[in-house]
Each structure stands twice: as C-alpha cells, then as structure tokens.
Design goal:
single chain; 376 residues; alpha/beta; Rossmann fold; 5-stranded parallel beta sheet; 5 strands; globular; SAM-dependent_MTases_sf; METTL25; Methyltransferase domain-containing protein
Length: 376
C-alpha cells in the first residue's frame, strides 16, 4: 500500500474509532458508575441490547455474529461488528496468516519450516509461541546466512535455548533483569540434560541439523544483563561476547517485548541497519507504552513519571496530527478476541475484584481521574 492510500486508510480508521474512544478508554467500573451505557452507546444498539437476554447476547459475541444478518433482531449491533472487522489489519492487508507465511517462505527455499514441539518446561501457550518463533527464526537465519541471533528481552530464555539447542545457532540473550538471566542459565542447564531424550522421541527427519548432543552454554548461547534502548550499540555487545567471530550479519528477535521495549527494538533495528538486517518482534503489554500526546494526569507530571522516549505514535503521520489512543485502548489492542471466542468465555468475572480494589483505592487516595491511576 502506497503512502497516500495508507494515510487515507489511517484517517478512515481514526474517523471510525474516535467517537468511541471515551467508551474504549473507560474503566469497567466507570462504565457503571458514570452511566456510560446511556451516555455513549448509540440509541439503536442500546435498544437491541436491552431487548436481549444476557446469555443470548454473550453467545452472539462469542460466535463472532456468524448467524447475524439483516433480518437478525440485533442487526444494528451486527452491522457495527462487521464495520469493526472491516477496519482490522487482516482485512486491509496489514497482516497475513501463519499458513500464508509458510507458503511464501516455502516457495523461496526447500528448507522445512518447523521446529520440535516441546512441552514440560513451559506452558502450552508459551510452548506454542516458542515453537513457531523458533521455526521462523531458524528458517530466515539459515537461508540468509546470519552469523548471530540477538534475543531482545530474553526473559526466561525459552526461545534462545531452543534456537541454540535444536538448531546450533549462536544466540545472545539480552535482558535487563539479572534475576531473569540467572534463572535462564539454570533453566538452560536443565534443558540440556533433558534434550537427548527429547530428541529421541521424534523421527530422525524431525530432529533438524542438530543430531549430536553437545553442551551449548559456553559454545553458542550467551546471556547478558543490560538495559536496552534505541541508542544501544548491539554489535559492540555481540562482538564482546563472541570476540573471535565476525559479527557483520546479525538478526534481532524478540518474543513478548514488553511495553516500551517493543518500539525501542524497532528503533534499534533502524539505528543498527548496517549490521542488523532482519527483525522478528512480537510485542506485548501495549498499555505500558508511553504516548507522546496522551493527556497527563493532574496528579503526576511527565518529569515525575520519568519518560525518556515515547512508544506511540511511531508513525510520522500520526505524530503530525498529534493522535492519541489512550491506555485502555492500547490494553484492549493486546487482547485476543479469537482466543476468547474459541474458549467461549469472557474474563469479566475475573475483573470484578480488581474493580472493587481500584474503587477502594480511588476513594481513599482522592483520585478523580484514572488517566495515570494504575492497579497491577
């Protein structure tokens, strides 16, 4: 999509979401105490919702309005839902499915796009994420001959360990927490001990290129404790850890780069483009980003918060129009609607006690705005 069309699409999205931003950014308890249902919900949709039973309405949402059409008695709500889908990145060519990505990559190389399924040391969800991330990283690293992988925000070391263990890649895991890195080292040693038996559970063709069990801790996998921002000299750190290697083609990866670390990784990639030619970044915790044009609470100033750089917006166009999204909107953007629909349940019940706690703290501390008031 060229720049003019992209700007037009962004304007279309902004025009759609802007009237709903007060609703999107409200706290769950404010929706009740401030009577936002009457104030912000369009009349036609409100009438349809009131006429339905709670379980019936919930089922419609969880089924993604699949059986809703013009004759449906929630046609206005269904129409709104369809409009939101029209604004999604997937509908507008902003993202592709995993299967489509596999197909594109398979057309460029005969290498397999796969990694060993691995459970036991991590949750089912984490294992799924690491497996896909590991397969994609390895495919790109091998086909484009990257010498080293830098895992930004390595955390517990699941991804970096699997890249080194299964695929013999040289991986530098960077995390700002010494506790995380110490835990990652211990966890890697446990993985090494279990690795030979894990590999033997799978056919020879599924074991990848790492068919000989070797300790990896001092050979290919390194851990570094340091804080990373957009000015960090990554190549210098890599060369310090691998003094005998030529580090002229490095790949960056990040699985769950939390909050500001995600935009910092993007800026870091651009600033080091001479030697870092590829980036795979999966961000999370968007509510922890700092917005440049977000309203600042009267209780805190930017100086008190200690904002060094802003994670949103990164787009020059959105900066020009000084667009602000809001913390709750960013938090909702990180929620998986598909997972909620597949599990056929919502988490509103789980939020109830958090709502009570937040209201209690607000009443005791005298806050009238939740712009900078955070619990958890």
């Amino acid at each position: 999509m060229d720049t003019p069309n992209l700007c037009n699409k962004i304007n279309e999205m902004i025009g759609f979401i802007k009237p709903f931003l007060p609703l999107v950014n409200c706290h769950l308890v404010n929706f009740i105490t401030d009577n936002l249902f009457d104030k912000l919900i369009p009349k036609e949709i409100k009438e349809e919702v009131v006429a339905m039973k709670t379980d019936e309405l919930k089922l419609l949402f969880l089924n993604n309005f699949k059986h809703c059409n013009n004759e449906c008695r929630v046609s206005q709500l269904g129409t709104y839902f369809l409009k939101t889908k029209m604004m999604s990145l997937s509908h507008n060519g902003g993202c592709i499915s995993l299967e489509k990505l596999k197909q594109i990559l398979s057309n460029k190389s005969q290498d397999d796009f796969k990694s060993l399924p691995f459970q036991g040391f991590m949750s089912l969800k984490k294992g799924h994420e690491v497996e896909i991330m590991c397969a994609l990283t390895t495919f790109i690293a091998n086909n484009f001959k990257y010498s080293h992988i830098v895992d930004i925000g390595g955390g517990k070391g699941y991804l970096s360990s699997m890249l080194a263990l299964e695929h013999n890649l040289k991986v530098l895991s960077i995390d700002s927490s010494i506790v995380n890195n110490q835990g990652a080292i211990k966890r890697t040693k446990k993985l090494e001990k279990a690795w030979k038996s894990i590999k033997n559970k799978f056919p020879q063709e599924d074991k990848g290129k790492n068919n000989i069990y070797e300790p990896i801790q001092s050979i290919s996998l390194k851990q570094v404790t340091t804080f990373v921002n957009e000015t960090t000299d990554l190549i210098q750190i890599v060369q310090r850890q691998y003094p005998h290697d030529t580090c002229d083609k490095v790949m960056m990866v990040g699985l769950h780069t939390c909050g500001t670390l995600s935009p910092s990784s993007l800026k870091l990639f651009v600033n080091n483009s001479k030697h870092i030619n590829s980036l795979i970044n999966v961000g999370c915790c968007y509510h922890l980003l700092e917005e440049e044009f977000e309203e600042v609470s009267k209780h805190w100033t930017r100086e008190e918060i200690g904002v060094e750089s802003f994670g949103f917006p990164m787009s020059n166009y959105l900066q020009e129009i000084k667009f602000s999204l809001g913390r709750n909107a960013r938090m909702l953007a990180a929620q998986s609607i598909q997972r909620i629909a597949n599990e056929k349940e919502s988490n509103l019940d789980l939020l109830f006690h958090r709502v009570l706690l937040e209201e209690f703290l607000k009443s005791k501390m005298g806050y009238t705005s939740l712009c900078r008031f955070r619990v958890g």
